[in-house]
Design a protein that fits this description.
By secondary structure, this protein is an alpha/beta fold. The protein contains eleven helices and eight strands. The chain has two domains: 159 residues, 3-Layer(aba) Sandwich (Rossmann fold), CATH 3.40.50.720; 93 residues, Orthogonal Bundle (ProC C-terminal domain-like fold).
Length: 268
């Protein structure tokens, strides 16, 4: 692609920029960035990744792809601003949680539109992304978007309705895992272990467990039971989690995030 414009310069935009440049998917000179007000942030990204600042809206006319990466609450205002300047052939890739393809079409017209929910692990090429397309996306565009996202992790095509669940699971998922590590650090501190030691132990534990899950078709429950000796330390810990309704807490966590995605889709 000759010109890709990012509308929004937050963590998700940076994750995609970093991942694509690092994997040589996109030439930094083809990337233009813009946001509503934070010029310092734009300058920071331009200097870090050697990308271009969007000087004026005339660039939209010959853009191959515009990536919507603003906060969901700012989406409609951003689309109203850029709509008059878009070229007839310009496609849209949205990373906005909860903002439907139908809503994007209302503001930006019947053009190729894809909605993707990556996560910030795109920065290191480890994103887990879900993607949905409208009927105007060509086979060539479809293949290109999949290729771009596979360069920064895995991508799974789903019905748009399922993106609410993808958002709640893998989109928000890194935050849940970071929160879990915070809790382990707090627990370790109670026994005199430094934050650095706990983090090193838990990061390796999480990475190793993930590899175990990836290495075969063994169910998580079976892997768990292999670690959980009757009357042992792991069983004691599992019983403590069960007593605090750990399973229900995780389900409620995902349900709340999924509900919030639907609220955003309704403009709430």
């Amino acid at each position: 692609m000759q010109k890709i414009i990012f509308i929004g310069a937050g963590s998700m935009a940076e994750a995609l920029i970093h991942g694509w440049i690092n994997k040589n998917v996109v030439n930094p000179h083809a990337l233009f960035i813009s946001n509503r007000s934070n010029k310092e942030r734009l300058q920071e990204l331009a200097e870090s990744y050697n990308v271009n600042l969007l000087e004026d809206n005339t660039h939209f006319k010959n853009a191959d792809l515009v990536i919507l990466a603003v906060k969901p609450k700012d989406a409609r205002a951003a689309m109203e601003v850029i709509a008059p300047f878009l070229g007839a052939e310009t496609a849209i890739l949205s990373v906005l949680a909860g903002v439907s393809i139908e809503t994007i079409e209302q503001y930006l017209g019947n053009r190729p539109i894809a909605r993707v929910m990556p996560n910030t692990s795109a920065t290191i090429g480890m994103s887990a992304s879900g993607i949905a397309f409208n009927q105007h996306v060509t086979d060539i565009q479809h293949a290109l978007y999949i290729q771009m996202l596979e360069a920064i992790g895995i991508v799974i095509e789903v019905e748009e309705e399922k993106l609410h669940a993808v958002t709640a699971l893998s989109g928000s998922g890194p935050a849940y895992l970071y929160y879990l590590v915070e809790a382990f650090e707090r627990a370790g501190a109670e026994f005199g272990l430094s934050k650095e030691i706990v983090r090193e132990l838990m990061v390796q534990t999480i990475a190793g467990s993930a590899e175990m899950l990836k290495s075969g078709n063994v169910e998580p429950a079976i892997l768990r039971r292999k670690v959980t000796s009757p009357g042992g330390t792991t069983e004691a810990g599992i019983k403590a989690l069960e007593s605090m309704s750990f399973n229900e807490a995780i389900v409620n966590c995902v349900r709340s995030a999924e509900n919030r995605s639907r609220e955003l889709a309704r403009g709430e």
